[in-house]
Specification:
Length: about 350
């Protein structure tokens, strides 16, 4: 009888609640206003011949590299950040190797590493979700072949100085160190502009969030040219679809659209944090387009109460250190105001005790 590999049979599948997402979607950190009108115009201009051809990735990679002020051989376009993570695991992990992640964080780091037969070492952040630098470095061994870090982190929204991330990379020159900058635009800090970029450092970006292109699944993996040549060996030449490649240059050209949306999110983030504080809900200051909030034992009722008001948020109760927590995406100013109004109603309706909200 055909059986999957032992490593795959032992995996817990990551199944986000995608079904039935009707209403104001503040659960997946997507853009709440969509993509640039220039992107839509380019998408509508595609003809049947464009869709009948295999996609040509390299010319667009050159444009993206120029935008990032990198060389073309340092950049690989990927099918979202998920594929970038998968490619790194396939390139550098053998069965029995170790991968280190600081938790709570994005689930796919662990899933892709375990799928390669690697052992995942989880370093738990403290109560404030401060980055566990000393413990992480102390756990680096000769078996460590991958370290995956999100900056800003998901689901906490916390960010660390780039110098700290570079310190991690230098402490493990034999390991691939991934800095996932999926929420870079809302934060602004990046290791990409480091003048002393270690050979083992990789950076991932996405166009799913600030650019509003989650449905087209397109991301970036950047790194040392020599190491990227190894990653390209396991990447399909047709991994990014033709529609995504056609519209990406227009998305890059319309930086005014991106900057306006980012500014609106940053403003909304500040307003939402103030509102959460006034309601007595404990939250962690965020550098991303979402905020993690501790509701307590009533977190499921909290989520359902917002859902009945047409607002979807994400349950993070099962993440390490996130018991009783939910995550709220910050969208446009209008959508933030709708959320705040609903929060006032729900907190009053559920009569959350002050000791839970403190």
């Amino acid at each position: 009888m055909l059986e999957a590999r032992r490593a795959v049979k032992g995996l817990h599948a990551y199944r986000p609640p995608l079904a039935g997402r009707v209403g104001l979607r503040l659960d997946f950190n997507e853009s709440t206003i969509g993509c640039s009108p220039r992107v839509l115009a380019r998408l509508r201009s595609l003809d049947s011949e464009a869709l009948a051809r295999y996609p040509e990735r390299e010319p667009v990679e050159g444009q993206v590299a120029k935008f990032l002020e990198l060389d073309a051989d340092q950049v690989l376009l990927t099918n979202g950040v998920d594929e970038a993570i998968h490619l790194l695991c396939s390139t550098y992990l053998e069965t029995g190797d170790e991968a280190i992640i600081a938790v709570p964080t994005f689930a796919m780091y662990s899933i892709f590493a375990r799928a390669e037969g690697a052992r995942v070492v989880q370093i738990l952040a403290g109560n404030t979700f401060a980055f566990p630098l000393e413990e992480l470095i102390s756990r680096i061994s000769l078996s460590t072949r991958l370290i995956a870090l999100a900056n800003p982190n998901n689901p906490t929204g916390t960010a660390v100085d780039c110098d700290i991330l570079l310190q991690v990379a230098r402490a493990a020159p034999h390991a691939a160190v991934l800095v996932d900058e999926a929420y870079f635009e809302f934060h602004g800090g990046t290791v990409l502009d480091s003048t002393a970029w270690p050979e083992n450092l990789f950076v991932a970006r996405t166009f799913s969030k600030a650019y509003g292109l989650a449905g087209l699944r397109i991301g970036i993996l950047a790194g040392n040219a020599g190491q990227m040549a190894m990653v390209r060996r396991v990447a399909s030449p047709y991994n990014v679809n033709a529609a995504a490649l056609a519209v990406l240059p227009e998305a890059l050209r319309d930086q005014q659209f991106v900057e306006c949306y980012v500014a609106e999110v940053q403003r909304g983030r500040e307003i939402l944090e103030q509102a959460l504080g006034a309601l007595g809900l404990h939250y962690w200051p965020s550098r991303a387009n979402f905020i993690l909030v501790r509701v307590g034992p009533a977190h499921a009722e909290f989520i359902q109460a917002l859902r009945t008001r047409g607002i979807l948020i994400r349950d993070r109760n099962s993440d390490p250190g996130c018991e009783g927590c939910v995550r709220l995406t910050v969208g446009s100013y209008e959508h933030t105001q709708i959320l705040i109004s609903a929060l006032h109603d729900v907190v009053g309706e559920l009569k959350l005790p002050s000791e839970v909200r403190a």
